[in-house]
Give the backbone structure.
Amino acid sequence: MSTAARSAAAFREEAHEALGRPNLKTGLDRTIGLLQSRRHDVLAKYPEFEAAREIGSRIKDHTLAHLDHYLAEFEKNATAAGAHVHWAETPEEACRLVIDLCQKAEAKSVTRVKSMLGEEIGLPKALADAGIERVETDLAEHIIQLAEEPPSHIVIPAMHKTREEVADLFAVHHKEPKIGGEVGTLVESARHELRPKYVGADVGISGANFLIASTGSVCTVTNEGNAELTTELPRMHIVTAGIEKVVPTPEHALVLLRLLARSALGIEFTQYTSFFTGPRRPGETSGPEEMHIVLVDNGRTQMLAGEMRPMLRCIRCAACINHCPVYSVIGGHPYGSPYPGPMGSVLTPALQSLETAKDLPHACTLNGRCAEVCPVKIPLPDLIRSLRDDTWRRKLVPAPSRWAVKAWAAIAARPWLYRRAAAMASRTMRLWSRGKPMIARLPFAGGWTDTRDFPVPHGGTFMEQYKQKQGQR
Ligand code: SF4
């Protein structure tokens, strides 16, 4: 699978294909179960969680309401600290800026910290096209770079890979692979491979978890320490960040950092939380000579002005993804963007287009777990419902589905007709089943019966059973 910018247009086919991959389910089950139970345990020791969620969502809402002010403040303070701030409206503009900076630094090799914004704008491909070697330093990103695959999760990009598959990859690609499939051995092998690359890199590229307006700082969080090595050792540090990442002060970032670590990995705080403020100053012994921050819009100001605005509160913790029943069986690749699961079903139509990503809002059971776990209280099911409504109004739903829904609406609006239709359908299915408890094939319901059997209704319609029970009483 290519690492170029992806499209959500083939969601149905790719989801179908993913359902037939047994290794995928094994990889997902192992990690998702662990993440859910860890989150549950850490929140049991954090009684302020609900209050912190409320404060976190208000911080984000306030900043979004005054985004122009906080972005200007961030630019002023970052510039005063010696960094250069660049603005990019489109992914192409953002990539061009980064490549120009790399070429100015005569970069042959760049190290990179995991950044979904980098994936969103297609930076890996842009670097390859410019002939610049890219070294992914996050362990999971390193794995998928070797496998030449895009990320399938925003926090654990190689979630779809089993330990055994990773061991096979390292055995083929590492210069001196450590033998053995244990996690510790695999980590050691990756460290051995990556350490020399940090020292040889000309430019380090990172994303940002938060941009602090009052200090002009860039905040990154990792559990591997790779952000510090990536940004401190090369001559130039380039940051690519979405404009919605800005928060007013470090204290505001701290509230969100506490929510982020617990929601993402079920830990109280990430191992490495760094604030980078400008390049190396005179007298300092480490840090880059130049620091550049590329602030990317890519549809965000449009979201700010519309119904999808609450989605800009997202702090990319992936809790919604880890609790999504659809993601848990198909993984992240079918979503056709770096953002899978419920958050991707809202964000991708906004970033690509609703025409391209029209199937994503429909790939949802609307069970509401995503909204329950979201640490900044994004009403994901409401946003998904609103996008479904848009696909309907813009006639992006296939004609047969539209006719079926219209027919159902006409029947449902007339209770007497609905009762008769339901009774007739129930009887017809019982006849069709020929006494068996499940129906293997049902006309006009191939989308359901192709992959699972349909249960035969028992005991009449709800109203028939209700009347019968009333009579018994
Ligand atoms: S939508 Fe909420 S739960 Fe999902 S990644 Fe964003 S902040 Fe986390």
User: Anything to note?
Assistant: The mean pLDDT is 93. The pocket of iron/sulfur cluster is lined by residues 263, 314-320, 343, 373-376, 378 (CB under 6 Å). Residues 22-44 form the longest helix (23 residues).
